[in-house]
Amino acid sequence: MNKNNVSKHQYFYAVGLSYKKADAETRGKFSLGTDAKATVLQQAKSEGIGSLIVTSTCNRTEIYGFAEHPFQLIKLLCDNSLGSVEDFQKVGFVYKNQEAINHIFRVGCGLDSQILGDFEIIGQIKSSFVESKEHGLGNAFMERLVNCVIQASKKIKTDTEISSGATSVSFASVQYIMNNVPDISTKNILLFGTGKIGRNTCENLVKHTKNDHIVLINRTKDKAEKIAGKFNLIVKDYDILPLEIPKADVLVVATGAQIPTIDKDILQLNKPLLILDLSMPKNVHDNVKNIPGVTVVHLDDLSKMTDKTLEKRKLHIPEAEAIIEEIIEEFNTWLNGRKFAPTIHALKAKLNSIKDGELNFQRKKLDNFDEEQAELISKRIIQKITNHFANHLKESDTMVDESIEWIEKVFQIEATKVAK
To answer: Could you say which of 58, 78, 109, 202 is catalytic?
Structure first.
């Protein structure tokens, strides 16, 4: 496939880090909350970056955008997180042009997820693009790309079994609880934090443990009450969290706080406690692990659980990759069309200019010059010539950038570039 730089000076990059090389602590440093993501977009606009989207989940933080150099995007990430450039150099990645396009497809289609086939990330990409558009940072390239990734994700989910079976971070946590806590239906479960992962975990807890006395606590109580009403559960005030924890056999922490909310100082325990930290950054302080009877499991530990469901999913990777390749090819065809269309228009204008000059010469030279017939024939010849060039540029093995440069040089034309 062609290397798709959209202009001669700016390139499409994907920069970021993920669970593949960065541990939970490092990912936590680079994690971007709602306010931080908005600040990234504002800073990008003020620094003249025309289009980008920002995603930050428990498994990854990534920026996709246009820049002359990837450091412009890396700087945006480091300026608005607790991560440093030195940290990024150790665990981060930079993909350019076609590699960046391939990467966002694999991420959005669940092939790069910590748990294979987990499609929650596509919703993040979609909402991130909507936010970028609201800041005036969503161009035609990015909109088409995101829509193609969504299309591929839907097709893979529908046409393959790569997401078959209940496997996600939230389900894996419930699976762990059920495998390690006897008589779970009779135990006291406390869920702290009711964001997306918290909601999904709550639903899985109710469905699979048959436990109907789960207690929910959230900083914003009305959010917890909405979920509790759906499942007929109990909601307690955030202020009494330290009083509720000692009653629990299992504590699930799924908040969006940027610093640990659970530490040894608030754990006054008189019985064993299993804590599952599903937050990013970590919301359970490391000093908790030193308390006798306390077991702490982080989402990275959960993702290492292998079962028959995941093994079955791996069999469907080739099908998913074939779908991605097909839709990437469609995207590249559209992209190349955008790239060479201005050159074809400029070529046609140049040929028409030559034609007008020649017809004007013949008009003065010949007394019986048939101007209408000459105009008709000339236009047909020009159309055939431009069609030949256009068809050449559409060929899959054509080096589009080099061909455009050659055409512009030979015919001494300068095409107006399409806005990215």
So the answer is: 58
